[in-house]
Amino acid sequence: METTKVVVGLVSDLDDPGCREFTIGEGDWPFRGFIVRQGDEVYAYQNFCMHAGHPLNWKPDGFLTGDGSQILCSSHGAIYVIESGECVTGTTARAGSCDRSRWK
Ligand code: FES
């Protein structure tokens, strides 16, 4: 499997908790992802909801619930755990988890 490294920014530039979107590739269908900072940890996910395949956010870098404790899909309200990508609430709760990428 080929590994692609992408510089999204400095961790210190992110709010805690906070998110930032990124894309890899060009054209109509680049890979769309986002990172989530929570304390000293940073998690990276594909920007894709398990329910209907929509991007999770409507607003730029807007991926979290109001209290910043979980990932929220803005389309129909699915909730995902930041640390694991597991869907815990909503229509996708039994469908699985976000596609989490490895982050270093
Ligand atoms: S597309 Fe995310 S909850 Fe429906």
Task: Please tell me about this protein's structure.
With 104 residues, the chain is mostly beta strands. The chain has one domain (11-103): 3-layer Sandwich (Rieske Iron-sulfur Protein). It is 0% helix and 31% strand. The protein has strands at residues 18-24, 31-38, 41-46, 70-72, 79-81, 87-89, 100-101. The strands form two sheets. It has a four-stranded antiparallel sheet with strand order 1-2-3-7, with no helix packed on it. Strands 4-5-6 form a three-stranded antiparallel sheet, with no helix packed on it. Strand 2 (31-38) and strand 3 form a beta hairpin. It is globular and about 30 Å long. The two termini are 17 Å apart. The mean pLDDT is 87. Bound molecules: FE2/S2 (inorganic) cluster. FE2/S2 (inorganic) cluster is lined by residues 49, 51-52, 54, 73, 75-78, 90-91. The site of FE2/S2 (inorganic) cluster (FES) has 11 residues, from loops.
In the sheet with the most strands, the strands line up as 1-2-3-7
Tell me the name of the CATH class. Mainly Beta
In DSSP terms, counting alpha (H) and pi (I) runs of 4 or more, how many helices? Answer: 0
Radius of gyration from the alpha-carbon trace, in angstroms: 13 Å
Please tally the β strands and state the result: 7
Approximate strand percentage: 25-35%
Which compounds are bound in this model?
Answer: FE2/S2 (inorganic) cluster
The span between the termini is: 17 Å
Biggest sheet statistics: 4 strands, antiparallel
How many structural units, i.e. domains? 1
Estimated structural class: mainly beta
